[in-house]
């Protein structure tokens, strides 16, 4: 029974339990018996495996079996590399262009990691309000995501934290710390199962990333799933984008499509042509504005006693001020302009239509647009959508994808008009109703959102739950129905 259930968990959640850990799996499932009203574990597990999992059952499994152990600025060496090596060059290259950054914390648990990244960007970019920054935090555990959205944390989340971190929180009467609204608004949380083949996709905003953090996640996955996840994360990155995983998760056989960049205490993988692993390159001694030595493993005194220390200096920190004045010289481990040139070349090919790869019919242009959108080349993707529509004005999928790109770029009114056009063309276009419902929800138009979700659900009831929906990047009718039900519950 337990061996069979272990395979069941691996299939649905990606979590891998070796035979010697099956007793641990059984113990973890005891709360499920109480939650679902079964007298013993075996009966409960048999019930779970007897029919397709509902959304509530999957959420309960995720809550029970996933590990939510994280804290702010965990692994200081990686944040030092971000501050001193990766972000300065990335920020400088974007400052002269579209001032756009896209970062994904995959397996974010309760949000400490994406908020740490947001705080770091706040410190490095003085004119952050003039930038288009997306920080996406995803996890399979709905309870963890709910905590992340609240942004309220106990002292334990601040162990090893430097004193300046308190500048980005306010202390509540109960002693817990609440993240400031300006930081909370920088992070968007979504439920996503890394074991599912639903990313990268413009539909869920997981394409075209500059940085992907996926730390302490894949070490819980089975050997068959890990290379699949790595390949999908590779596809989610822009040319020149970076993937960061925990050193304990690295099997270089799975990362051959990346260039490996070694830094003291951290390894990052760059999306490029897949050069051989390099020898460690020393990082020059630079003033460390972000971190101090953090090794006590204790919650900081300020978390218990309040803000009894000098505030952080106002204005731009030295690193950010210098960044605005000059473009830093790339280090030996930083590919510098090469990544920017590669991305620019890809976009130029897209703008020209890349006729060798595109067919002249609407479906061909729409497929090319989807590929470009997944790479974050949104302007080029829009051009391909427009060419698809010029070929066939009744091609609803091209209108739908064009609307998703407008949503990604913050053009909500334009997206609404395009989605309505798609639904006028195809009254049974389920994804159109779903996207419009999500858009209205973002705009605060809750009644209209519920109405669109209701239409989508009524159409889904006519479908085989196992059927893959067209233009959905692999989502089944049953899976989308569960997503909509969760959305409607709020």
UniProtKB/TrEMBL annotation:
Please give the biological process terms from Gene Ontology that the record holds: methylation
Q: Which UniProt keywords apply?
A: Methyltransferase, S-adenosyl-L-methionine, Transferase
Q: Which InterPro entries match?
A: Bact_Chemotaxis_MeTrfase (IPR050903), CheR_C (IPR022642), CheR_MeTrfase (IPR000780), SAM-dependent_MTases_sf (IPR029063), TPR-like_helical_dom_sf (IPR011990), TPR_rpt (IPR019734)
Q: What is this protein called?
A: Chemotaxis protein CheR
Pfam families named in the record = CheR (PF01739), TPR_19 (PF14559)
What terms describe the molecular function in GO for this protein?
S-adenosylmethionine-dependent methyltransferase activity
Please tell me whether the keyword S-adenosyl-L-methionine is annotated for this protein. yes
Q: In what residue span(s) does the CheR-type methyltransferase domain sit?
A: 1-249
């Amino acid at each position: 029974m337990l061996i069979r259930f272990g395979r069941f968990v691996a299939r649905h959640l990606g979590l891998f339990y070796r035979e010697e850990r099956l007793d641990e799996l059984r113990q973890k499932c005891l709360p499920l018996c109480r939650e679902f009203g079964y007298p013993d574990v075996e009966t409960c597990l048999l019930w779970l495996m007897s029919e397709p999992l509902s959304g509530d059952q999957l959420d309960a499994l995720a809550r029970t079996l996933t590990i939510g152990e994280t804290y702010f600025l965990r692994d200081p060496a990686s944040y030092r590399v971000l501050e001193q090596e990766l972000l300065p060059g990335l920020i400088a290259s974007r400052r002269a262009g579209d001032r756009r950054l896209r970062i994904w914390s995959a397996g974010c648990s309760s949000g400490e990691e994406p908020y740490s990244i947001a705080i770091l960007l706040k410190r490095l970019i003085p004119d952050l309000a003039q930038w288009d920054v997306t920080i996406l935090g995803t996890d399979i555990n709905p309870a963890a995501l709910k905590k992340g959205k609240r942004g309220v944390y106990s002292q334990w989340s601040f162990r090893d934290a430097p004193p300046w971190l308190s500048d980005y929180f306010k202390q509540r009467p109960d002693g817990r710390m609440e993240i400031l609204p300006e930081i909370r608004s920088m992070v968007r949380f979504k439920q996503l199962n890394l074991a599912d083949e639903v990313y990268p996709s413009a539909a869920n905003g997981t394409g075209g990333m500059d940085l992907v953090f996926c730390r302490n996640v894949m070490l819980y996955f089975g050997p068959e799933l890990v290379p699949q996840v790595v390949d999908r994360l590779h596809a989610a990155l822009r040319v020149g984008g970076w993937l960061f995983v925990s050193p304990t998760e690295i099997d270089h056989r799975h990362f051959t499509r990346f260039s490996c960049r070694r830094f003291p205490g951290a390894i990052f993988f760059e999306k490029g042509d897949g050069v051989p692993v390099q020898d460690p390159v020393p990082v020059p001694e630079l003033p460390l504005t972000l971190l101090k030595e953090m090794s006590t493993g204790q919650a900081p005194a300020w978390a218990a006693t309040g803000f009894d220390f000098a505030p952080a200096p106002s204005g731009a920190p030295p690193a950010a001020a210098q960044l605005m004045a000059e473009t830093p010289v790339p280090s030996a481990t930083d590919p510098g302009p090469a990544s920017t040139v590669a991305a620019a070349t890809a976009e130029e090919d897209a703008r020209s239509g890349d006729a060798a790869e595109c067919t002249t019919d609407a479906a061909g242009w729409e497929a090319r647009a989807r590929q470009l959108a997944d790479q974050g080349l949104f302007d080029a993707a829009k051009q391909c959508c427009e060419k698809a529509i010029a070929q066939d004005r009744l091609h609803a999928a091209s209108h739908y994808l064009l609307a998703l790109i407008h949503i990604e770029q913050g053009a909500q009114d334009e997206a609404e008009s395009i989605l309505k056009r798609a639904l006028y063309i195809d009254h049974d276009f389920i994804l159109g109703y779903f996207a419009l419902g999500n858009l209205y929800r973002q705009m605060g138009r809750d009644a209209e959102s519920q109405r669109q979700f209701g239409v989508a659900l009524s159409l889904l009831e006519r479908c085989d739950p196992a059927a893959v929906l067209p233009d959905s990047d692999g989502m089944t009718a049953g899976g989308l129905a569960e997503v909509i039900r969760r959305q409607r519950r709020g």
